[in-house]
Amino acid sequence: MESNTRRLVVVSNRLPAALALEDGRWQVRAGAGGLVSALAPVLRDRGGMWIGWSGTSDPEVDAAGLLADFSSEAGYDLYTVPLTADEVAGYYFGFSNEIIWPLFHDLQTRCRFDPDYWRMYLDVNFKFAEVVARKTTPDDYVWIHDYHLMHQALFLKSMGVKRRTGFFLHIPFPPPDIFMKLPWRWKLIQALTEFDLVGFQTLQDRRNFTGCLHRLMPEARVSGRGAVVSVDMGSRTLRVGAFPISIDFNQFADMARRREVADRAFGIKEALRHRKIILGVDRLDYTKGIPERIRSIKTLLRRYPDLKGQVNFVQIAVPSREEVDEYRELRTEIEQLVGRVNGEFSFPGWVPVHYHYRSFPPDELAAYYLAADTALVTPLRDGMNLVAKEYCACNVDEDGALILSEFAGAAAQLQKNAYLVNPYDLEGVAKALHRVFHWDKEERRRHMSRLRDQIRRNNIYWWVDSFLQAGIAKNLGDFPAADAMTY
Ligand code: GDG
């Protein structure tokens, strides 16, 4: 069966719709975000389904019934994998978020290698694989997303279920020296080789993966060039590729051109008295480098006192994993830092840091992107970072500047026209801010228009197509890589 006729089955930890209790009644709310908007039309057009957890472990809730109604509206099927509170604790908060998340972001000291987490991770992966086996047929293409579900292909095979499978990792893949710290390193890497295609965000992630393969499974032979290569495991071959994820460029650009959004952006600028706006937008997570960023703002104001009263730093931090102590502590740390910087530098009529701890509706976020003169995107490590791309898409006047961490996957594509920084180097970041503050209109336009061209071309639809093509194409010889993907 050919690529464009296979039914697509997407499997992820969470469904693209969440159950929420509103006015005492459970409702289904559609998820937003690039992945959902890119995959929904594909699922609708070629027929398909999405399998994932509904987001609630309440046994009283008829998740399947609620989702069935939602499915008919969405135009594709949604199936839930019911999980108990213990399963969510061990597999999601435990193994996924206390082991894989920090380890794969090179933050091994934050890992808690609890063997019970591993066992629960396997149990839940098995549960997912049972649902996938039941709901799909051998003609389907099964696309599994992210680090929560790395054992799907292995378990499907162990059940004797033959499926064509692709896996995409949204977060970085660590270099061998870090991966080797994982107590279950061999089992995990072996499970990944059971997919037909394994996709990463960057060539560097792909190289890290093949580096780990060389160490742990020396029989693996890598061949080919380009974005997608083949790995011969002796008894079977898999493909391994780099597919930098992106955004729906036109959707963001169109939003930024809407009258209400432009008015709102003007309102934001006016409220800040038309001072230059430096913007940070992140889920509140320790990988995003928010404390370091605030310290670099402090360094900026100390080193370059001429900028006092000239700039405002606006940080939007979206609440995330609030039930976890570490995230609550991070929130406190950020709030104290904001207080300290404002305490040190404010004067009547000027407060340097504006901090928002909440989620904004999409058009409000677009207004902030549009209003900002500089986006300061400085994660300590990031798979891709979509905020960097969204900022450029919304910068329809092409007068903004992007300062980007060299440790974000996005840097591999955007390095030529973003100002790259090391987020740990507070003086380097301050210098970058000072430099771009003095960029003239022409310099800003030149960089921004190139950034926008590139993101426009390699948008989320390109990403979906290239992954699916690599999953099914017979010959990888001339598989097209993303423009300018250099590492
Ligand atoms: C993982 C990887 C990879 C943020 N604030 C608001 C809001 N957002 C949206 C942004 C953006 C998304 O959240 C964040 O995406 P990122 O890519 O920056 O980061 P992660 O959440 O960590 O995502 C990452 C990604 O997966 C995709 O593969 O790029 O590296 O870690 O879309 O717009 N959205 C709204 N209001 C807000 O206040 N509506």
Automatic annotation (TrEMBL):
GO terms for molecular function: alpha,alpha-trehalose-phosphate synthase (UDP-forming) activity; trehalose-phosphatase activity. Transmembrane segments: none annotated. SUPFAM superfamilies: UDP-Glycosyltransferase/glycogen phosphorylase. One of its GO terms (biological process) is trehalose biosynthetic process. One of its GO terms (cellular component) is cytosol. InterPro entries: Glyco_trans_20. Belongs to the glycosyltransferase 20 family. This is Trehalose-6-phosphate synthase. It comes from Pseudodesulfovibrio alkaliphilus.
